[in-house]
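Hey everyone, long-time lurker, first post.

I ran two proteins through the pipeline my lab uses and got sequence/structure pairs for each. Pasting them in order. The first:
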Amino acid sequence: MDNIVSTASPRVTTGPLPSSQKIYVTPQAAPDLSVPLREIELSSPSEPRVRVYDTTGPYTDPAVTIDVRQGLARARRAWVLARCRFPTRRARCVALPASRSPSSNGRAQA
């Protein structure tokens, strides 16, 4: 089967969600953290907004520019390295067997 190559940019849904606002709160016990919450408007204007934990990541933050080719920012890298629990590793090259090399198109070599 022929490979289909698209020149169109990948599309990711981004931007604010309706009837809500993304906010960040900082816990007293961890002033270096920002916890994402979503304030949701209820149908009655007299009711206070409901706050829920926001799992959407940076995709719904209007202050963040999303580029799928660049990937997400490594927001926790400094925090992880400061904990010194995870050693850093250098990338290593892995040789493919001849039967799996790109030049063989995935077919076994005779």
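...and the second, right after it:
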Amino acid sequence: MSKIFVSAKLLQLMEFNRITRIFVTILQQSGPQLAAFFLMFVVIFLGFSLGGNLLFGRVLRNYSTIIRSLQECGSMLLGSHNIPVTTLDDFFHCKNLARSF
């Protein structure tokens, strides 16, 4: 709680600078749009993570739990493509499982 208070106090002190004042004003005006964007991002990200867990959870260790699935999707989002190579049987198992939905 004290960090929020210190941040608010720092922003008040920084309003003497014109560029910082413009930046704070832009953030204040775009607050609802940013909140809506982050809400949609969380919903879509959770959907992909849970979908990966449901489709690949039994086959791949990186998707075996929801937490690992979230970590794997987060690392892929940041550019790390650490997807292990699976056998052809595992691929067809996941493909048939996806068709069942």
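Reply from user beta_strand_b:
Welcome! Quick read of the second one: The longest helix spans residues 31-56. DSSP finds five helices and no strands in the chain.
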